[in-house]
Amino acid sequence: MFPDQKNQLRVGIDGPAAARACLVRMLETELGSHLQVAVLHAGEAPYTAQTPEESFRDAAVLFVEGEGVSGQRRAWDLDAVLQAGTFGPEGPADPLPDADLVLTCRPAGGAGPLEAWATYHVMVAVGSLPQLAPLKIAERIRLPHLDLQVRKIEAYPDAEDAFDVLFRSSARAVWLDSSNAETAPQPRNRFSILADDSGSLGMYVTHFSGMTTVSSAQLQVRVRSPFFNWLAGAWDKVLEPAPGAFPSQFALGWLGYLGYELKRETGGAVPLRAVSFARYRAPDAALIFASRAVVIDHAERCSYIMSLVPGGPGLDTGSWQAGAAAALHRLSRIRRGNRRIACSTDDAAPVGRTLQFRCLDDEQQYLGKILAAKSEITNGNSYEVCLTTQLVAEPEQPVEPWQVYRLLRRHNPAPFAAYLAFDSLRIASTSPERFLQIDSDGLMTAEPIKGTRPRHADPVIDRALREALASSEKDRAENIMIVDLMRNDLSRSAEPESVQVERLCAIESYATVHQMVSTISAKLRFGIRRAHAVAAAFPAGSMTGAPKPRTMAILDGLEAGTRGVYSGAIGYFSANGACDLSVVIRTLVIDQPADGEGTPRQCLSLGIGGAITADSVPAAEYEEIQDKARGVLKALGTVFPQRNPGNCRSESRALPSSELFSEVPGRSV
């Protein structure tokens, strides 16, 4: 479709004729001083596309003018080749595979001028393209004026009830849930954040194998560029800090997850083998832009309603704020009366009575991989290999994801718990581990976990287990190796001599396990983009081992398939430049096919693993992954798969109808 010319940016434009013309004018206006815009074809036919291929018949070709700019396309990786022209586990259809950027005007958006917010995100996408890097377009992007409104509410509702009432009905919503705040208060679990992508500024972003798609009510932007390049442009345009009286670092912005496979951009490779349940593959990354949210302060026992609106302080979101405030006051009164709201799933009829998991590696296979990892260490190729596997269930009848998460947060409360709903995908996390925090002033903090012991009902035995972990030379060695790796990762973006180890091998106790935790801090170096600081540390060293690039390659050869969401990060990238991300562990990923899709049934997956060192005892390492899975499996009413070689089926007990598949006790007024 495009002529073979050097130094060009290929842009496909789809939509009604008037909207296409509007987009071309916008590109000419925004890029006219850097690019020469030439329209290859712009038919005046109305928008009557019957198939994706037919809809992309109009395009503009932008010829790049600039010293040192190269128009050479980067080579497609394996996943991108699989993605082209298909719709399935590898990602969405790519009907215009030769385009670097595809702009789709949504009919609902009308044919009038693009709003400043939509124009801004087109320019963010253009600025993320590697071939335009010498033009430094991203540095010239003008951020639309946005007004951050924060309203304190003297109400302290149950966070679960608040999410249920205000956000759970949304197709895309995020709850960053400090679920252990009541039992173990500390600074890192002070706030719970509840949000969705509603509102005029709401957006949803996914990334599949090199293609980032940004969707809003008016426009869809698809750009073929590294995800962290796009994130740098979308996140780094920092707003004014939140009002001084607002104590949280979160000031609205992007929330969601970064999947482990983004390692292809940070020193890793694309694994050649596909996971056995690949038809359920989640995006490599998914984020919503939240222009409205509720923040619950567990320390001060109050709430905040936040809104981000365009056009200056004269505009507000009064109707939404008023409705949210009324709901929070009502839920707070219910909580003070020791009651709970009725949940729409409480009266659901049971859809099943058992849940069986299989594992990607049976016991003998996993023990063999431990020995292979030890061999790599003996041969000098690594000194710590964080080997993982996954438990997978495909229930005959689907479970209710919301019920699943409610059970998990009760059985296994954690400071970085989270519930994410992205269309058919649900993520229910009870992670205790912080990957990376960057505050608005640039202070970076990582808190890797290495070393685990199970909890015990007998206090004497439980204390002995905790003391055994604290004195374990093997666990301390594992933890210190990851601390050294994280110090190196942070130093790549830090001011010289600012890297500090604030805690080393401390013990923290959670509902089902004791963990060994360290804390590393550093100051972000001036001129380093925050997204690139995140990329420099991603994925978390506690999920790879060290040295990181070589060990990730070893893991690609050992593990049965891609990790997906597991081992990545969940959290927020705030509009004031702050971020707070957890490591995706103790996390159930539920792919729930939408009506009309051909997938036969729902899929649940739980990633588990542990660090293998030269001193590792295979049987003990296998026992450790069971300990890590126990909290999630127990909440679901099942156990770890049987240990008979070659048998990956789990023993399952009958699930109480009052739990996973219908009502949770205490959920009525």
Automatic annotation (TrEMBL):
Keywords noted in UniProt = Transferase
The residues covered by the Anthranilate synthase component I N-terminal domain are: 169-302
Q: What residue spans carry the region label Disordered?
A: 644-669
| Segments forming domain Chorismate-utilising enzyme C-terminal | 363-628
Spell out the InterPro entries in the cross-references. ADC_synth_comp_1 (IPR005802), ADC_synthase (IPR005801), Anth_synth_I-like (IPR019999), Anth_synth_I_N (IPR006805), Chorismate_C (IPR015890)
Broad enzyme group: transferase
Q: What is this enzyme's EC?
A: 2.6.1.85
Q: Name one Pfam family in it.
A: Chorismate_bind
Q: Tell me what this protein is called.
A: aminodeoxychorismate synthase
